[in-house]
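FIELD: query
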Amino acid sequence: MTTPRPSSRGAALRQRLRRGAGELSRFGVVGIGAFVIDVGLFNLLVHVGNPGVLADKPLTAKTISAVIATVFAYQANREWTWKDRSRRGFWREYSLYFLLNAIGLAITLLPLALSRYVLDLNSALADNISANVIGVGLGTLFRFWSYRRWVFPAADEEAEVSGATLHEGEAATD
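FIELD: result
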């Protein structure tokens, strides 16, 4: 195996950074769309009306809004953010996506539960800060890392995760 020249390493690094920045940008745009769906539906269920339909069940409302936003985000991420990555089978990819999203949802619900049931903060402002700023922020960091790593991996990452070893010039196959 030959060692790449420093200039080719630099070029490869620049290309990888450009690709990563593009993915992060597209993930962010999809995330904004999912965030609007999630926050809008959460507030509709908990705070619109007097009282809201699920005013006394904010964790249920957040779960419903997050699941609907997740369906949108999966489709948008698959078809746009990581459209160039190989498909690993719809059910496998979809199941893994939703499993990781369940973990992300738990991360999102923790600050809301703490705010509501430990600190006894019941206002719309407290709900939105705990669930939709702190919770969604932490959940988003986990989701980007986990989707990129396990749901939509690059060919070289997929081989590394599965334990296969690629030799220079080989491409990963399904």
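FIELD: remark
Residues 164-174 have pLDDT under 50 and may be disordered.
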